[in-house]
Design goal:
The complex is a heterodimer. Chain A is mostly helical. Chain A contains 12 helices and 2 strands. The longest helix of chain A is centred in the N-terminal third of the chain and has 36 residues. By secondary structure, chain B is of the alpha/beta class. In chain B, a hairpin with a 2-residue loop joins strand 1 and strand 2. The longest helix of chain B has 16 residues. Classes of the chains: A mainly alpha, B alpha/beta.
């Protein structure tokens, strides 16, 4: 990094030399990857449910927010962070399964639109219920990672950002191994792709769908607990995240779990870079970027980067 | 000894349309029975009724146990494997994964290795293709996979829906030859076929369906020799 020496009376903009520009760029990319991991987790949850039931779960983000409140309550009751974290994952899993069995199952055979409306109802219920139980007052939410930033050369990384990336990667690797190498993971994939044949080999497809909802709720809970320290906890915690996750899933392709994950990271990085370098967008118009991405993808490549065209025989 | 499968006054419905109008038949243990009939006679529906994939009335008993109140999954757990119309391949999964899924409905999931050897013994080509996505197999190979997947259950009854459909005669002959060995190894088979000559050769018992009713029932060599029946119902 050859840094040109500046001698006299430099203006602030001239002081931002090429070297520091690069540092800022890398910093922004890393923090983009950190938020991207959040989007990736929620996008993966959306895609899993979409593949299994052809339905976009609009309540995914709100379910995650609710789980984060559960974690907050556990922490308040004096549980250590990682204990509360794991307990929340367990509760989220059970919650996801119960929601599928009680709310989604009865409308399973209904037209897609009815199920979408049900998930929208779920969104409103989760949101109001959280407000009713925990009020709408913003609450600080702890990070398990040290607050001291981590320095590499001139580049400063937030420790929470790095920890968040680490946690996301661990979750993604676990879930990949689960689906790729365990009999249950195989049966869940089969049930999602081909429910009729799955029944014919004896798989209880209904339960596989419920497990899928449980796992999706777990990803959401991870995302919620990781994003809450940055945003502070309130009932609308996940509203924005959900929109970015939609953008991520659309970009990667709603039929491709790997694509959705990659889409999440791309959306996170793009969001951050655009916010940094395109001055008129700043923080106010950031959402517009996500929505613009959704529209562009749908116009140019509706199946997303890695999605398959789904051919339906009628 | 009670029959392996006993169907009485079976009716089946698609929505409000009745597809079977009181079908009755029984199947002895260890045999190969074939259901013949024209398109729309109700052959596939009969298999789907046994697997609980359509709404039915009447009674179906397997080894004395009633099936009518069970879900498809539970029928499989009793040891009835169904290679459905269209083969039911999990096209996105590998051949090996398809076979693994075939064993899902079995109570003991140990000794999978043995079963792999067993079905690869019948269909060596599947061993070569085991890591390949099942959707990339040829039609004949996919049919072999469908039969192999069904065998992974270690079924006592194998339901086969038109295994010859769309396949070259040579491949069909090969598959039917293997089906005979499978049967000799103790698996009873209920076969639905369009190709009557082929099915009559393989089966020991036949019944004929016409628009949802059984019109003829008997040992296959009797039907094979009866010219009137052959011309009227089998068209050859």
């Amino acid at each position: 990094m050859g840094r040109p020496t500046c001698c006299d009376g430099t203006t602030p903009s001239a002081a931002r030399t090429w070297g520091t520009e690069l540092d800022i760029f890398i910093q922004q990319v890393v923090s983009g990857l950190a938020t991207g991991g959040i989007y990736a987790s929620v996008a993966l949850a959306l895609v899993m449910i979409y593949q299994a039931t052809d339905v976009v779960n609009f309540a995914q983000g709100e379910m995650a927010m609710f789980a984060t409140y559960v974690c907050w309550s556990l922490l308040n009751a004096g549980m250590p962070y990682w204990g509360a974290f794991l307990a929340t994952l367990g509760i989220a899993f059970v919650g996801g399964v119960v929601i599928e069995r009680v709310v989604i199952r009865p409308v399973e055979q209904a037209p897609i639109l009815s199920i979408v409306i049900v998930t929208l109802g779920l969104l409103v219920i989760c949101n109001s219920l959280a407000g009713w139980i925990w009020t709408y007052v913003q609450k600080p939410f702890p990070s398990p990672f040290p607050s001291k930033p981590f320095k590499a050369g001139n580049i400063v990384f937030g420790a929470h950002d790095l920890g968040q990336i680490g946690v996301t990667l661990v979750v993604l690797v676990c879930i990949y191994l689960f689906f790729r190498f365990t009999p249950l993971g195989l049966a869940m994939r089969a049930a999602a792709h081909n429910p009729v044949s799955s029944r014919l080999v004896g798989i209880r497809v209904g339960w596989m769908l419920a497990l899928g909802w449980g796992l999706a709720a777990v990803f959401g809970a991870v995302a919620g607990m990781m994003v809450a320290p940055n945003l502070t906890l309130e009932p609308n915690l996940m509203g924005g995240v959900q929109i970015y996750a939609f953008a991520a899933a659309t970009l990667g392709g709603f039929t491709s779990p790997g694509g959705a994950v990659l889409g999440g990271f791309i959306v996170g990085v793009v969001e951050n870079l655009v916010g940094t370098y395109v001055s008129f967008i700043g923080t106010e118009l950031k959402f517009t970027v996500a929505l613009a991405m959704i529209i562009v993808v749908l116009l140019v490549k509706p199946t997303g980067l890695f999605g398959r065209t789904v051919v339906k025989r009628v | 000894m009670s029959p392996l499968l006993e169907v009485q006054d079976l009716e089946a419905f698609y929505g409000r349309t009745k597809a079977l109008h009181g079908v009755s038949f029984s199947m002895a243990r260890g045999g190969i029975t074939t259901i013949l009939g024209a398109n729309g006679a109700g052959k596939t529906t009969t298999l789907r009724a046994i697997s609980r994939m359509v709404r039915t009335a009447g009674s179906i008993r397997f080894e004395g146990q009633p099936l009518d109140q069970r879900a498809t999954e539970d029928v499989v757990h009793l040891g009835i494997a169904h290679a459905p119309e269209g083969r039911g391949t999990f096209v996105h999964l590998t051949v090996e994964e398809n076979l693994r899924l075939g064993a899902w409905g079995r109570r003991d999931r140990g000794s999978l290795k043995e079963d792999f050897e067993h079905v690869f013994g019948y269909f060596p080509v599947l061993r070569e293709r085991r890591r390949q996505a099942a959707g990339t197999l040829s039609g004949g190979e996919q049919q072999m996979l469908a039969v192999a997947r069904a065998l992974m259950l270690r079924p006592r009854l194998l339901l086969l829906d038109e295994p010859s459909l769309g396949l070259a005669p040579l491949v069909v002959r090969e598959i039917f030859r293997i089906l005979r060995t499978v049967n000799q190894a103790g698996v009873s088979i209920l076969l639905v076929e369009q190709n009557a000559a082929l099915a009559l050769d393989l089966a020991d018992h036949v019944f004929l369906l016409e628009t949802g009713r059984v019109v003829m029932d008997g040992p296959s060599d009797v039907l094979r020799r009866d010219d009137t029946i052959r011309r009227a119902y089998l068209g050859y």
